[in-house]
Amino acid sequence: MTGAAGAPHRLDPAGGCPHADNARLLARGAVAPVVLPGGVDGMAVLGHEALKEFLAHPRVVKNARHFTALREGRIAPGWPLATFATVRGMTTADGDDHRRLRSLVSKAFTGRRVEELRPRVEELTAGLLDDLERAARDGGGVADLRAHFALPLPMGVICELLGVDAEFRDRLHHLSNQVVATDIGPERALAANRELLAVLGAVVEARTARPGDDLTSALIAARDEGGDRLSHEELIGTLVLMIIAGHETTLNLITNAVRALCGHRDQLARVLRGEASWSDAVEETLRWDAPVSYFPFRYPVGDLPLGGTVIPAGTPVLAGYSAAGRDRAAHGPDADLFDVSRPAEPGAARHLSLGHGAHYCLGAPLARMESAIALERLFTRFPGLDLAVPEAGLARGASFVGNSVQELPVRL
């Protein structure tokens, strides 16, 4: 709940819809002091222009050795956000380390490589639409689109890219969900992290025994070449990142886009008539209801003036993507409206929801392609698809990091 003017905003570990709080915080300024779970002081950058500056600022880093409270031992074991700070991989690396780790996986996400995946994404989508139709038939006309379509599509694609056997997939989704959750206690957080590392260790063992034409096998080869290309901890950390970012974000994006289009039938009709593209619908969803609300963490290496305030050195800072997407200073007085034909300013990014700067989302082309194909095939096959419960009745995800709902019951 937001406190009095100037008081830190206490983030709700249970998540919930972020937009009302975002509007109140943005009315106070582009940067806001926040209280993270466990009483940890932090900051959130909410305004579009401030966030754009912050994400590319040369004196803002990702390595947790710059996280003052963590370095001084003031963060309790089992802190629910610890994995975001401490996992060994490109999301917590800077400079040469970041470039080295990113280069090991970047070839799998080039525009050409992603386009080569299009037929497989289309094939998976077609099969999942059959599954969704069966689930609706078995469920009296209602099916959970999130469980039967929005989840298995990106999970299937990223696991095929990584060479993860089907036997591991359901468990990996459950565990990554726990890692992203911000409302779990220390014991569950520690247990989920231990099990996630164990499952990924088993994946690595399987691919070591049976190498294939997949990203995990390529990472294992890089690790085993010796030198300083990749440590075992970095290999596991990279897999953690690939699994979580490779499906959770796209899962939320597809879910939020379906909700937005069902709630704005006029906008859906414009796309179906060809007045806007499915890619336009994806981009407007990314802006209007970003799949990630507050992403942890970056740390200024010195006191940083930003957006009319100063962020103290060593503060854990959240990137407020969902707030920036509706910032009226950047998107105009109608920023709260969902408009698939919204014009972008010449030369300006329509949104920052996939990041900016050196850590821009590596999987952005894949997420965009998966989501556009998913929406086109879904609404072409089921043009009358609609929510089976009112939007207000949908339970929100238990996290202020991810931004979506837990289930999406629909009628086809």
Automatic annotation (TrEMBL):
It comes from the Bacteria. Signal peptide: none annotated. Belongs to the cytochrome P450 family. PANTHER family: CYTOCHROME P450 YJIB-RELATED, P450, PUTATIVE (EUROFUNG)-RELATED. This is Cytochrome P450. It comes from Streptomyces tauricus. The lineage of its organism: Bacteria, Bacillati, Actinomycetota, Actinomycetes, Kitasatosporales.
